[in-house]
Amino acid sequence: MNKKEQLELYHEMVLIRRLEERGAELYQQGKIGGFMHLYIGQEAVCTGLIAAREPNDRVITAYRDHGVAISCGISANEVMAELLGKATGTSKGKGGSMHMADTSKNFWGGHAIVGAHLPIAMGMALGDKYAQRSNVTICMFGDGATNIGFFHEAVNMSKVWNLPVLWVCENNEYGMGTAVDRASAVSSIAVKARGYDMPSERVDGMDVLKVYEASRKAVEAVRAGNGPMLLEFTTYRFRGHSMGDPERYRKQDEVKKWQENDPIGIHRKYLVENKLASSKALDEVDAKVMDEVEQAVQFAEASPEPTLEDLYADVYAD
Ligand SMILES: Cc1ncc(C[n+]2csc(CCOP(=O)(O)OP(=O)(O)O)c2C)c(N)n1
Ligand SMILES: [Mg+2]
Q1: Staple partner for 249: which of 35, 177, 221, 254, CB 3.0–4.6 Å?
Q2: Cα–chain-centroid distance for residue 123?
């Protein structure tokens, strides 16, 4: 990865962070409805992972999807407008926080039912294999999703049919208020792949360059026809499960410990220590992102709501 690309990773992580911080404020002001799950703390995963894909590789994820949308190339304006339920949003204001999508950018959503998008990912990969296309489907999900039948059915069939899928678990240590150890027989999700004779790896998900390296190798191995693989990224969400989570299931000391391992701080330190950017230049990136996010808020607030007729559009495919 060249210097420009490494700097872009920094910009992208800061953009995701600030956009969500601003989103949280707007939520508190009552401008955003429904559930909203922040990705803060996990930015290195989507940023490093999606930097490793080719544009024709598909990405699909669960409801913690704002960062994934940005990494797939959806603009801050469209993400913010979607959060506010505006017609200019990436899902025309009808999806909201949990259902960001743009198939033109090969981002297949944003899915709210835990684990339900894994069989969809498998189906997309089956379609690609059948049509002899060379793309890889990257399917992201949480640790909690791996305790659900969907996970085992989809991962099993992907191996039986040797499908081009990269399964990516973001192990952030909790599924809502339940710690991994309380719900999963094994605390490393990578181990679960062994039951399906599938290669897997557990990688530090707080370091964007480690995420990128592991993802690049995995995407290319899958593309080469070696069959599906599973990557587990160890990460942590700094905020509650969703807005309004009282967080009684974890101690603030634990959160603080992980915050010392902030993915943005880690990459910033790397860039400065390796003289790829000065602190001043990175402060300028931070300032530019603040403007970008403010513009996105203005764009979203000035945008129209979807009309009543819009309710009936895009319900069925032609
Ligand atoms: C089938 C189903 N069961 C329960 C829920 C409620 N629920 C929403 S998120 C969640 C936790 C999932 O945890 P994980 O997969 O680790 O993802 P994370 O929230 O940590 O990103 C649960 C149980 C749901 N949305 N769908
Ligand atoms: Mg989780």
Answers
A1: 177
A2: 20
Compute, in angstroms, the gap from residue 278 CA to the centroid of ligand 1: 40
Gap from CA of 299 to ligand 1 centroid (Å):
31
- Identify the pLDDT of residue 259: 97
pLDDT tens digit sequence for 79-119: 999 999 999 999 999 999 999 999 999 999 999 999 999 99
Separation CA 157–CA 314 (nearest Å): 30
Q: Which of 20, 37, 113, 114 to probe ligand 1 with, by most ligand atoms within 8 A of CB? A: 114
- Residue 94 phi, psi (nearest 5): -105, 0
* Spatial distance between the Cα atoms of 295 and 131, rounded to a whole number of angstroms: 42
- Distance between CA atoms of 238 and 72, rounded to whole angstroms? 22
CA angle 252, 17, 11 (to 5 degrees): 135
> For residues 232, 235, 236 and 242, what is the CA-based torsion angle, rounded to 10 degrees?
-50
Residue 179 one-letter amino acid: A
User: What confidence tens digit (pLDDT) does each residue in 229-244 have?
Assistant: 999 999 999 999 999 8
Can you read off the two tokens belonging to residue 195?
């039951």
Ligand 1 site, residue 149, Cβ cutoff 6 A? no
Cα→Cα distances 86→2, 97, 305, Å: 37, 12, 5
Assess contact for 166 and 229: CB atoms under 8 A: yes
Q: Which two tokens stand for residue 26?
A: 């707007």
Rounded to the nearest 10 degrees, the angle between the axes of helix 3-28 and helix 43-51 is 140
CB distance 174 to 114 below 8 Å: no
Rama region for 109: left / alpha / beta (φ>0; ψ in -120 to 50; rest): left
